[in-house]
Amino acid sequence: MADETENDLIKNLETIKAKRGYLLPHHGLLQISEPDLLSAYDTFYEVMTLRARNLSELSKEIIWLGILITTGERIATHHLDRLSKAGGGEEHLTECVSLAAWASGAEHYAFVSENWSDFTTDFHAVRNYRVKLDALMIESCLKQGDIEMTLAAIYTATNKHYWLEEHIKGAYASGVEEDQLAEALSLTMFPGGVPNFVDAAQIWKSMINQKKVQASKKYKIWAEMGEQSGFGDVLSHT
Prior knowledge:
Number of strands: 0
Distance between the termini: 50 Å
Number of helices: 13
Helix content: 55-70%
Structural class: mainly alpha
Oligomer: single chain
Largest sheet: none
Strand content: under 5%
CATH superfamily of the largest domain: AhpD-like
Radius of gyration: 20 Å
Number of domains: 2
CATH topology of the largest domain: AhpD-like
């Protein structure tokens, strides 16, 4: 490797570190093997995470932490620093832990409703889920919209469609702007996987077409637009 190439490699990695405030092993791996891919990846990450879009910085970091705790991303400690810089503290982190823990057991509500309904007289999965969630969050420092978006993002990352739909509804009911909700769900693409984000978009689109939420004009256009089911009509089965 020529000295100039070595210098360029070091310079490019230092540029990434300066932009993000840290450097991870895969940055160097991509730089030496696929620099164009690293450049595209870095641009995508900058737009998704570093650039101000629709969410406030505090809301964005709350949602990020809910996702990261759920997916076990221990390396992402820079988001704790970003939470602090956005005006958050350990009380916000504690609430994110509570939401992640809550979401991990949510499927049990659906289980009882779906399998034991003949043996119960007044068990309703969504109603009971909401009552207990409200009790958990009654003294929370989080805004209701942030709670709804964080849980929607968690259920996107974990591919739990039943509860994702509930919190898309909840986000609308809480006055969350659609572009804010879209940003919240998009944060799952790296830690939760793009396929789960695709499924979440399909669920939201179907909810709009079924009039389960009152969507804006541009979101209705998206939902009603032609075939969006992928090769072999895969998404029609979701």
